[in-house]
Amino acid sequence: MTILSEIMEFNKEFVNEKQYEQYETTKFPDKRIVILTCMDTRLTELLPKAMNLKNGDAKIIKSAGAVVTHPFGGIMRSILVAVYELKADEVYIIGHYDCGMSSIDTDSIVSKMVKRGVDESLFSTLKYSGINMKEWLRGFSDVTESVKRSVDVVHNHPLMDKSVPVHGLVAHPDTGQLDMIVDGYEVAAKQ
């Protein structure tokens, strides 16, 4: 049996038994917050529990490293939609210690791409087109500084309401302990 078939079999049972009823909510976050966090599997259930969040409390956006890599990319667009359309009044950028993005080797990733069938000549075309793979795939060396940079990008974005607090935190992926890096209330109060 494949993973997909297991998922589909479980899903049919989940729907037939109306197990979804305990998760019913609206599209608007009850706690009026949007969270950008890492896609790390250790955070899937741990982070919401460590923040006392239940289904429907927050909009949660996930990406590798919880990094806003481009001010007009999909992550920033999602944050802006959450604030302006989905009633989120605060933004939380939450990185975590022991993040895979802190030790990423872009040459290794490119090598793995080639081994899995990506034409090596494509990388020359991308470079010619202005795409620097090392820059595009790069991670960070310090999660605290990475969180500060992402908070700065969001808070200072030309389309962001400056009165919206943008908080920066770093989670411990084993315990869920949160270390505050940027108190968005303090920054917003200075505006």
Q: What can you tell me about this protein's structure?
A:
The chain is α/β, with parallel strands linked by helices and 191 residues long. It has 2 domains: 27-102 and 141-191, 3-Layer(aba) Sandwich (Beta-carbonic Anhydrase, Chain A), CATH 3.40.1050.10; 105-138, no CATH class. Helix content is 39%, strand content 16%. It has 8 helices and 5 strands, in the order H-E-H-E-H-E-H-H-H-H-E-E-H. It has a 5-stranded mixed beta sheet, with helices on both faces. A hairpin with a 6-residue loop joins strand 4 and strand 5. The radius of gyration is 19 Å and the shape is globular. The N and C termini lie far apart (57 Å).
